[in-house]
């Protein structure tokens, strides 16, 4: 049995710090358990009381006569090490610690938290929190948060903010249809970590969708691994706060956790299969949609509208969300034409052009035709749907009711999602047209926002892609290369963390990367001439190779378009002189110079991109891709993925940068060789996965051409501290 099962499905609950004061949590929690019909035993613990709310009060946990699954601890922080020890002695399985004043409060609080956790580990008690708002499980009638009027359902909430949880619960109540399963405020994660909650919810039979509000993570790498597992079975909606410097500062002070760089978080969380909410007010709508509808098989959407305006807006919104307007077959268009007026638009988006004004049943007939088209992955209905009885004649209401039932049935039978946007969707429950209530009760989401409707479709497409994401194969991870292992050992002996460029290029080639560019290290002017001649006397680039000079251009250590023997000799001498002067100006009296690298000049006309790897403090090694050269600093048009990469990951990165059209060719230029870029990224992934000693890797720029690529500059830095071996761990 999962160790968290008794925490979320307790058969008995002790409330330590129980109270008769209605304003105290130790009173309200007991009252809520009673009101909600908790079927297990409730044990108030307070040495000064005989009974509380009709339950016998016990002076200590040791006096409770029966077994205890879960303890809600309402006492001050300073008491927690002793209380947890009492829990352990009594065989309590889990403890929810409400008190703040622990690691989030500074060094003293951190020491107190460490003592508490030490006791918990010693005696086998799992701790939720501290600094948590609590937990509830509607399916076990175990609500020790105090939220009222919870509707039982399949959406679980895991949050680092009690206020965000209250906001989502309140929104679910206002919606009227959304039911919740489990909530946990994770607090400081002193014991139970975020990823452990994901693992529990993955197997919880009452949870269909997980919503996670994240400010920061203590173990991002393990979280990603758990996220990858759960998203193959259940959708996970994540709202990651801390997108700005101000937001990250707030998150750190609130939870004591590292929020990390948002661009990195966005890339790796999507890679792991999460559906990312970009606005706080779309979180629950995304979760509701994912709980009701199947994932999309692709990104092709049919739009069924009763007005040109909404049809156009829908087309714009679909494009903005990277969804496609499905291309309807001739047979589909013929069937639509047969039942719609001649003024109707039958090319997607389909505009019925007044055809439904007197007969809303046409919506169902059109929906059946569109959903039968193999080129359609989902259907969006937009306009007056459900409101014809309000807009035109109440005699149409019965027709609309039957239409709602038919559309819902078509959705179920086709296995393809349908979402309704209706002008009347914003009306409250007492005013909402009955046809809209019926179709929602039958499992079709209804929204009053067209943009939100499209956003929900994008979530279904993203989850479908997450489920289809291939597992890592044998080619995605490679063994350690003997040659680069020798380079690392040589760097350690020489006390340097800079891998020289010729060494780095060889490492990439050993990892299976085709550099497409010859390169020779020259240790003298004569060697440089030999290299130049061996390359066919084509124009070459020459640059300093030195562990003491990282910024080669700034040092005057780069010369371009060298096209004859005398120029090669002159460039060699100039590069050495410039580099020596630069190094001495920066405190290196005798710079360590390995020589000058000679490479052919890259052809003109390519697209500059950058590929890099850094060791993110939260998620471990991540790969970056984007436009390179000076553009990377100006535009910051880059995306990230966690290592190791799959080919699917690499290809998705190419299409995700804002300027991806440049790679596809613009103004008559041909598309770049994406296959070569993908293979380069996979090779970098293999190298950096095999060698955790690599702290940073930069290939900038890489020139991408219609045929092949050219890696113009390679930089690898080693971690000054060698990684621990498994034995040292």
Description:
By secondary structure, the protein is an alpha/beta fold. The protein folds into five domains: 1-132, Rossmann fold, CATH 3.40.50; 147-265, Rossmann fold, CATH 3.40.50; 293-468, Rossmann fold; 471-516 and 604-729, ATP-grasp fold, B domain (D-amino Acid Aminotransferase, Chain A, domain 1, 2-Layer Sandwich), CATH 3.30.470.20; 518-601, ATP-grasp fold, A domain (Dna Ligase, domain 1, 2-Layer Sandwich), CATH 3.30.1490. Helix 10 packs across helix 17, helix 11 packs parallel to helix 17 (450-468) and helix 13 packs parallel to helix 15 (397-414). The chain is flat, with a radius of gyration of 31 Å.
Count of all domains:
5
Apparent shape: flat
CATH class of the largest domain: Alpha Beta
Strand content: 15-25%
CATH topology of the largest domain: Rossmann fold
- Major β-sheet strand ordering: 9-8-11-10-12-13-14
User: In CATH, what is the homologous superfamily of the largest domain?
Assistant: Succinyl-CoA synthetase domains
Key terms:
729 residues; alpha/beta; Rossmann fold; seven-stranded mixed β-sheet; seven-stranded antiparallel β-sheet
Give the helices and strands, then pairings.
Blueprint: H1 5-8, E1 12-16, H2 25-35, E2 41-45, E3 51-52, E4 55-56, E5 70-73, H3 80-90, E6 94-97, H4 107-123, E7 126-128, E8 135-137, E9 142-143, E10 152-159, H5 162-175, E11 180-185, H6 194-203, E12 209-214, H7 220-230, E13 236-240, H8 245-255, H9 262-271, E14 275-276, H10 283-292, E15 300-305, H11 308-320, E16 324-325, H12 330-339, E17 350-351, H13 362-371, E18 378-383, H14 388-391, H15 397-414, E19 418-422, H16 434-441, E20 446-447, H17 450-468, H18 482-494, E21 498-499, H19 501-510, E22 520-522, H20 525-534, E23 540-546, E24 558-562, H21 565-585, E25 593-600, E26 607-616, E27 620-627, H22 631-635, E28 638-642, H23 647-656, H24 660-664, H25 674-690, E29 694-704, E30 709-711, E31 714-718
Parallel strand pairs: 1-2, 1-5, 5-6, 6-7, 10-11, 10-12, 12-13, 13-14, 15-16, 15-17, 15-18, 18-19, 19-20
Antiparallel strand pairs: 3-4, 8-9, 8-11, 21-31, 22-25, 23-24, 23-25, 26-27, 26-29, 27-28, 29-30, 29-31
Helix pairs in contact: 3-4, 6-7, 10-17, 11-17, 12-13, 13-15, 15-16, 20-21, 23-25
